[in-house]
Amino acid sequence: MSDTLLSLDGIAKSFGGVRALNDVSFGVDRGQILGLIGPNGSGKTTSFNVLTGLYRPDGGRITFDGAEITGASPQAVYRAGIARTFQRSRLCLELSIFDNIMVGNHGRLNQGLIHNLFRRKALKAEVDAAYAEAMALATLFSPNLGDAMFEPVGALPMIERRRIEICRALIAQPKLLLLDEPSAGMTHDETHQLMSDILSVRERIGGLSIIIIEHEMGVIERVCDRCVVLNYGEKIAEGSYQEVASDRLVQEAYLGSA
Amino acid sequence: MTQVLSRVPAFAVAAVTILLGLAFAIVFMEQESDVAVISLVALAAVAAWLGTRAGVADRVSAAAVERPGSIALLVAAAMLVLIGVFVEDHFPLLMLATVMIYGTVALGLNIQFGYTGVVNFAGAAFFGIGAYTSAKVVDSGLPAILALPLGAIFAALIGLLLVIPVVRTRGHYAAVVTIAFSVLFKTFLEVNDTLGGPQGLSVGSMKLFGWDFGDSPTFGDFEASFYLNYALAALVMLALVFVLVRRLERSWLGLSLDAVRLDETGAACYGIGIRRSKIFAFVLGNAIIGLAGALYGSMQGYVAPTSFTFSDSLILVAIVLLGGMGSPWGTILAAAIVVILPEKLQAIQEYRFLLFSAVVIAILLFRPAGLLPRGVRHYFPPLRKGAEP
What we know:
Distance between the termini of chain A: 46 Å
Number of domains of chain B: 2
Strand order of the largest sheet of chain B: 1-6
Helix content of chain B: over 70%
Shape of chain A: globular
Largest sheet of chain B: 2 strands, antiparallel
CATH architecture of the largest domain in chain B: Orthogonal Bundle
CATH superfamily of the largest domain in chain A: P-loop containing nucleotide triphosphate hydrolases
CATH class of the largest domain in chain A: Alpha Beta
Distance between the termini of chain B: 32 Å
Largest interface: A-B, 47 and 30 residues
Mean pLDDT of chain A: 88
CATH architecture of the largest domain in chain A: 3-Layer(aba) Sandwich
CATH class of the largest domain in chain B: Mainly Alpha
Order of helices and strands of chain A: EEEHEEHEHHHHHEHEHEEHH
Mean pLDDT of chain B: 87
Helix content of chain A: 40-55%
Oligomer: heterodimer
CATH topology of the largest domain in chain A: Rossmann fold
């Protein structure tokens, strides 16, 4: 088995006349953290949406864990082992913390009709086990979450919501985690705390690969093994943070040409 | 008051509340004059308002979380007592049975748009399919009891015709599709001769192991109204459907339905089949509505197109909104209000659609979660805040 977990090869995606992604290729190795950076509108979130099956690419190939997933449905991508968070939190605000985390656990829970409606004892055992697991994961991020498992998410502050969203993505034990701007709407300190939590959880799980979209370069510098820079839907640089930060094209993209 | 209440066990508060509700229902059902009915409605509204402010409502919902089974049994027992009080009177029993049948229908609709967000403005049409199935089954000489499962099956199957447009379209478009079906259904009944045209069909009475629902049950010298049969059957049906809906809500399936309603994109990214969930909810909901329709047709003794119009569908939707989306207890309470109030208040009968429209608008504006808002999901009673380390 090769060391490459995910590879995008010549991905193209247009909306009407706008080329959102143009011949974009990059890959992630097992256990690696890749930073995906670029100015607003450069195609970062579009890459995530193509990867997770929300958009169908116009061209190119996506391979994950040895199998092709180009154009697969979001459900199939999730089953293959990719979980994501969203730039604008997509939690179900009226549902409890426990419910929200369990949405991420969908693939591991028995969804059988008979099991759910008529074998209540077996269901209870499953709920108890899932509860213990969700509790353990949530309290790693914040002890407060453990006390509020059956409170609606809508009552919580932004940082707790981010944490729950990440728990929801992690509970399914994915091979690859996609984080879309986890620092959005949070203070510098909160972001720092959140990244430390993610790194410590990752150490426990072991082998988890991450792609992170982020505007805060401090975060990228701290956590990423490698970076890919997009601009106007094209890849303009790739390498370590130091390499891409000193790249002339990257500096032009962020600051404008001299 | 709140402090005193917090020392009384929640279950005791709930039990007293249910008993008071039962007493109120008995007194209310016996009133004839508009003035008395209006006074009692006002009294109930004030009592509900004061009770909520004093914290009774919170204690009752706490009891419903801690001991859901006991509360449900208590309410079922109260319904039995209520039926027992009016055991000789046709009209009150007919009303009670109608409340329970409409409650069952609204529980079916609740699965569709309370949980899954699939709008259905053709509730009365699927109700009608059940009722007409009942007429045809009894007429064909099949055992009458078969009308119930067949009513459910036919409603679910005919509902499948709508599945593609309902699942493919979203929001307003799905609503328009079901409205169109509702109108089409009534027109179809009116022009179809084998279904009796505008006059409709008569329905033979329900029979169960040689027990004819059309006969008055006698106990020695005492003769009960034949509606007792239907009221009891409706209670059993409502109880079974209620348990089913509760179990569905408190399971992974219910969670998936909620996730589909609240965020389709998010749900899809976590592996939840959107179409599958919507089809499941639509078919199961229609089957429940059809089941209730079959009992209704047999109880009424006749079915006609005018009983299953688009306006009737709107009333069913109003019940779900009034009670609270996704709230089974709210749904049953709302069914009672919507069915009984116009029957008791002859003065408003002519204006009932106007009144319901006003009520729906008021609910959406001032209490969008409904009369008894749905709480957070508790899969099993002991699994709640503070119960686990």
